[in-house]
Amino acid sequence: MNPSAHTPNVMDFPAFLPARPLAEDAVPWVPLSAGKSFKPLRFLREDRGFVELLRLEPGETIPLHRHTGEVHAFNLEGSRQLCTGEVIGPGGYVYEPAGNADWWKVLGDAPLVVLVVVTGAVEYLGPDGGVTARYTAQTLMKTYHEHCAAHGIEPLDLVD
Q1: Which of 6, 74, 122, 148 has the least C-beta neighbours within 10 A?
Q2: Please, what is the Cα angle at 109 between 104 and 111, to 5 degrees?
Q3: CA 2: distance to chain centroid?
Q4: Among residues 124, 136, 110, 147, which one has the least CA distance to residue 52?
Q5: What pLDDT, on a 0 to 100 scale, did the predictor assign at position 19?
């Protein structure tokens, strides 16, 4: 028998968990500052991290920050330059291990859109190395809910 001749039905499996698709316009862009916004895709339970689309306007800089967990970032649109000088364009991928500290800036005239998977937290650092701001699944979920409330939008359950 040719194994590829039979496509299994998901109902054939004892523990079927359905996918949770999200339409493109199901979640709004939530401003974080004048030139920075995010579209939450998933908040991981127990504050383990989050998945988001991050959008930055041309010329924006992400200041020095540290990651307490791993980060996977895939450029969808636009380009950015890492503090190491490397330029990441559309289709480029960056892996950042836990403990990584860096900064980067948007290049060109087009907005930057990056799919970001963050485990742990993102800590922004001041000149003395102290933490000036901390973004976690909980803080971003609160920001998302506040934005929805202010604009009469019913927030989706994005927790997994």
Answers
A1: 6
A2: 65
A3: 41
A4: 136
A5: 81
Q: What is the set of domains in the chain, with CATH numbers?
A: 28-150 (2.60.120.10)
Intra-chain end-to-end CA distance of the chain, in Å? 39
Residue 103 pLDDT: 97
Name the token pair of 16. 């079927």
Which pLDDT belongs to residue 5? 60
Report yes or no: 111 and 55 within 8 Å, Cβ to Cβ.
yes
Q: What is the model's pTM?
A: 0.87
Q: Exposure string (b/e) for 108-134, b if CB count within 10 Å is 16 or more? A: eeeebbbbbbbbbbbbbbeeeeeeeee
Please choose, from the candidates 60, 62, 71, 52, the residue with its C-alpha nearest in 3D space to the C-alpha of residue 119: 71
